[in-house]
Each structure stands twice: as structure tokens, then as C-alpha cells.
Write a structure and sequence with these properties.
The protein is an alpha+beta fold and 288 residues long. It is built from nine helices and eleven strands. The chain starts with a helix and ends in a 12-residue tail after the last helix. 31% of the residues are buried.
Length: 288
């Protein structure tokens, strides 16, 4: 996946071959007796300010990170190296806001497979991502549904709502014999994959009483992924960027408030340019 964060340069702080004695493994004797693990990490961050000021507080303290890795792996037990690496990477990204991306490798020397093996390892790359989410409602207390959705997204582990647009009232789209919609957009920083974000949006919709009876019909809450970094994805259940966003004023107008210069990865136009290019009323209404 090529994202905006991959494209811009990030500096690297490297921790290599940190030895940790911990209790991870599939076999009972591994979790009971423990064994040595070797951890390496590449911390992707911006070291410019630290380099200019010579202040440790402006950087990521590799000593603190090393101590955190040691303590975390000792305090938790996982059957799989995959789980240990995944959870540790997530904890580090949450703990250190200036850590944009991490490459983490956990080695297990002399793994018990009854064959001559020096080491086995799992290496993962995890990043922060930026998603733009469209919100809509035309039933009940519309504004409260939208505000509750924003709060619910901000409470998801590994997610942080960065910016929320104002809410605009728009006529319905597709099925016009229904109440007007209240629409908005938000910027979400997330550690979740696009599929995981979609699952969370569907969960929040269900908890708000959303029923999928009629396409473009009334709904208490409608949440759509508009952008996820610069990802282009066309699958049965997931299409990013949203397939119709460039034709919908009710999406572009609030999105332009918070990300006017965000560029569509397929059409190459900014949000502001797409909004300016809309003709007639074909961009009004609510999302599907």
C-alpha cells in the first residue's frame, strides 16, 4: 500500500537485537519456563527538531522504548510471535504520538521444532493512517446521532478524531420522498486497516438503530469511508475512494472545510476542485 506517509521522508531511529527473556510460545513448557527473544525495531519519525535543538524531549527516547519493549513482553504472554509483534507495535504507536510508523521484528532463537534451526522471526510494518469519513442522518435527533458517532469513533482503540466539519442540511438523494439530511465529514487518524474501519462504522450504525431496508432510504445514521490515505481499493464490500463522492455536494462541501487540498488518488483533483466543478443539483442528498 502506497500512502502519503510512505511518500514523504521520515527519519529512522534503530534498535537492534534487544534481548528479552519472556514467556511466549505454543507449548506449555515455553510459557512456563520462558526463553530468550531478540527484538529489533525501526522507529520512523521526524528528527529534524531534535537535531536542531539537541533536546531529547523533541525526539523518541530509544532507551525508554527499549525498556518498554522489555517490560511489555515480560508482562504479557502470547502463543504466536505474530500476536506479540502486533500488540507490541500497536502499544508503541499509541504511546508515542510522534512515532509515525514502526518496523518491528521479533526473533525466537532455537525454536522447538526438533530440527537444526538458528532462529525464526516475524517482522511487521505498522503505520498511522488518515481516513476521511462522511456522516449523515435524517431520522430522529439528527445532530445527536452525528455527535454520538464522532464520540464512538474517537473511543475506538487506535483511533483519534482530528477534525470535524460543521453539519449542513441537504435534501435527500435517490429516494426524494423523505426528510432532509444532516451531513458532515471528519478526519480520523487510525491504526486500523480499511476493513477494520468499515467494520467499526457498521457497528456504530447498528448501535444507532440503522436498518438497511431501502437503498438511499431514511436512516438514523450513515457512515462512509471517503478516503483512506491514498488507497485505491475496489472490492465487493469496500470501495475506496467512495465511488460517488466526486459527484456529491453533500460530501464535498463539508469535506472541503477540513481537507480542501486532499487530492483524489484516481482523478487527481483536489476536494476544492471537485466541489467547484459540480454542475446543477446532482451533488445533493445523503450517502448510501
Amino acid at each position: 500500500m502506497i500512502t502519503e506517509k510512505n511518500k514523504r521522508h521520515l527519519d529512522e531511529i534503530r534498535i537492534e537485537d534487544l534481548e528479552v527473556f519472556a514467556n511466549h510460545g505454543v507449548f506449555p513448557e515455553e510459557t512456563a519456563l520462558g526463553q530468550k527473544f531478540v527484538v529489533s525495531a525501526v522507529l520512523y519519525t521526524d528528527t529534524r527538531k531534535a537535531g536542531r535543538t539537541d533536546e531529547l524531549t523533541e525526539s523518541i527516547h530509544y532507551g525508554e522504548v527499549s525498556a518498554f519493549i522489555d517490560l511489555y513482553l515480560k508482562q504479557h504472554t502470547y502463543k504466536l510471535l505474530e500476536s506479540a509483534a502486533e500488540r507490541l507495535a500497536e502499544e508503541l504507536l499509541i504511546k508515542y504520538p510522534s512515532l509515525e510508523q514502526i518496523r518491528l521484528e521479533i526473533k525466537k532463537p532455537w525454536a522447538p521444532i526438533r530440527l537444526p534451526l538458528r532462529t525464526v522471526s516475524v517482522e511487521i510494518l505498522r503505520s498511522r493512517h488518515t481516513a476521511y469519513i462522511a456522516l449523515g442522518s435524517n431520522m430522529g435527533d439528527r445532530e445527536n446521532y452525528l455527535k454520538d458517532a464522532v464520540k464512538a469513533l474517537n473511543e475506538i482503540r487506535g483511533c483519534k478524531v482530528r477534525t470535524v466539519s460543521s453539519y449542513i442540511e441537504t435534501p435527500p438523494y435517490g429516494v426524494t420522498d423523505q426528510a432532509d439530511f444532516l451531513n458532515g465529514c471528519l478526519e480520523l487518524e487510525t491504526l486500523l486497516t480499511p476493513e477494520e474501519v468499515l467494520n467499526e462504522l457498521n457497528r456504530i450504525e447498528r448501535e444507532a438503530g440503522r436498518e438497511r431496508v431501502l437503498r438511499w432510504g431514511p436512516r438514523t445514521l450513515d457512515l462512509d469511508i471517503i478516503f483512506y490515505d491514498d488507497l485505491v481499493c475496489q472490492e465487493k464490500e469496500l470501495c475506496i475512494p467512495h465511488v460517488d463522492m466526486h459527484r456529491r455536494k453533500f460530501v464535498l462541501e463539508p469535506l472541503c472545510q477540513i481537507a480542501p487540498y486532499k487530492r483524489h488518488p484516481v482523478y487527481g483533483k483536489t476536494v476544492a476542485e471537485m466541489l467547484a466543478g459540480l454542475e446543477g443539483d446532482n451533488g445533493t442528498g445523503s450517502g448510501n
